[in-house]
Amino acid sequence: MDSKGIKHQIDDLLTHLPGGNKRAKTVAIEGNCGRSAKCAAIDKLPNTFENKGYVHGPIDSVFGQRRAFPVSIDTANVDMDKIPESAEEYLSQVRREASEGVHQDEDEEEDFVYIKRGESPAQEQQGAGDDDYKTMERYLQDYIESRRIYDSYRQQLHEIDGIELPQTAREWKKFIWEVSCQREYIAQIVEEGLHMKLLVYFTKWMWLKMDSNFTEWLLGILSAVDNPLSSSDLSVVRQLGKKAARQLAHGSEEAIHMRSGIQSLLKTEKEAQEIVAKARQYRAQKLKAAKTDAQTEIEAYKATKAAELKSFQDEFAGANVQLESNAEKEVQVELEKIRKTALEKKDIVSKLLIDTISSPKPELHANVAH
Predict the structure, then answer these.
(1) Which residue has the higher pLDDT, 356 or 254?
(2) Are 78 and 104 in contact (CB under 8 A)?
(3) Separation CA 237–CA 222 (nearest Å)
(4) Could you say which of 34, 51, 61, 129 has the lowest number of CB atoms within 10 Å?
(5) Shortest CA distance to 230 belongs to which of 101, 92, 83?
(6) Rounded to two decimals, what is the model's pTM?
(7) Does some domain include residue 31?
(8) 16, 91 in Cβ contact below 8 A?
(9) CB-CB contact of 111 with 23 (8 Å)
(10) How far apart, in Å, are the Cα atoms of 236 and each of 86, 129, 241, 349?
(11) How far apart are CA 123 and CA 145, in angstroms?
(12) Could you give the count of Cα atoms lying within 13 Å of 147 in the half-sphere of its Cβ?
């Protein structure tokens, strides 16, 4: 499919989904004071609309065309968060949003493309553009198919069951997050005119956790909205689209910060692992050195104690010999005394024994006579 056909389908999607934030891209040509070539060419054209009864203003310096409707409200004072109460307020919001979108070239690269002379936009964005077109084409086909399926279902539905729907915002919130989206619920909601009220709730709840149930309900309601919409309903859809765009941009920033945080965590973890490895290596070296020092101290202690023991043995070895010699001498002296005493008493003892044997005493035998 060529780019022209895809562009046609994108326009068709924006037609089916009123309030889609289709923002024009402006191409600035270098050396032309920031104004587009189209605007410069229109300035040179003669004013052929004079005196023809047309209600028109001057040529817009940004968009290069005359304003389709006169708007007396100053766009600088328009409250973008307010739901418009008239067509004039709605057009003022649209004009201010378009004007701000064109000049936000520093913050939103997707709304502004700067091309030097001699360069082709197609060459710059060919790779990314192909993917964007394919994604948009897929979204377009999915949305058109969802609308077709719902329209077919609604045409075949002759009676709508009296389904009891929630009344308060709290009840709706519980219902959306807990009940699966069904076509009969969608038909009942649209029949009772509660679908735009739900879109307002969806806009408020978009900052919350958007699970698959929430997404199915949101897409289900969008596939059932009228075509075309009234100005007030269109404003509700536009607010939903702008909130979704901000949420998407915020999510992209969070993803970038998350990736940066993950990289920082991985880097920190790697540094921590290196520190732990160095600490283990240092600890192993210290343990090895401590073991060597302890072994050296043990050997020195053993040598010291061995020297002390040898000195003690050498010191008391001579003393023991002397003591033994002195004891031996004392024993010999005592033995000599005993021998001398025995020799001296030998003759006396022998004589006493002989006298006793040879000279008996009668009194010792007195009892023999009796």
Answers:
(1) 356
(2) no
(3) 9
(4) 51
(5) 83
(6) 0.39
(7) yes
(8) no
(9) yes
(10) 14, 30, 9, 155
(11) 33
(12) 15
Across 296-305, 343-352, 357-366, the highest mean pLDDT is recorded for 296-305
**Tokens describing residue 173:** 């919130």
Any bridge partners for residue 26, and if so which? 112
Cα(107)–Cα(77) distance, integer angstroms:
22
Say how many domains are in the chain.
Answer: 1
| Distance separating alpha carbons of residues 84 and 99, to the nearest angstrom | 18
| pLDDT tens-digit readout, 268-289 | 888 888 898 888 888 888 888 8
Residue 305, CB half-sphere, CA atoms under 13 Å: how many?
Answer: 6
Mean pLDDT of 44-71: 53
Q: At what angle do helices 183-191 and 195-205 cross, to 10 degrees?
A: 110
Alpha helices in 206-230 (DSSP H): 212-222
Q: Which residues contact 73 (CB under 8 A, 6 or more apart)?
A: 88, 89, 92
Can you list the positions of beta strands (E) in the chain? 26-29, 112-115
Cis peptide preceding 228, ω within 30 of 0: yes
Range of the domain at 31: 3-156
| Angle CA 40–72–231, to nearest 5 | 95
> SS3 of 69, please?
coil
What's the pLDDT score for residue 10? 52
d(CA 20, CA 363): 166
* 318 within a domain of the structure (yes/no): no
Q: Contact 146/217 with Cβ under 8 angstroms?
A: no
| Residue where the block lists tokens 């719902």 | 150
Q: Report the residue count for the chain.
A: 370
In a domain, 226, yes or no: no
Q: Is residue 338 part of a domain?
A: no
Beta bridge partners of 113: 27
| Residue among 102, 138, 118, 123 nearest 10 (CA) | 138
Distance CA(309)–CA(17), nearest Å, equals 106
User: Position of tokens 């328009």?
Assistant: 78
Residue 112 or residue 65, greater confidence: 65
Task: Give the 3-state secondary structure of residue 303.
Answer: helix
Residue 247 has pLDDT above 50, yes or no: yes
SS3 content of the chain, % helix, strand, coil (to 5): 70, 5, 30
How is residue 113 written in tokens? 């493309």
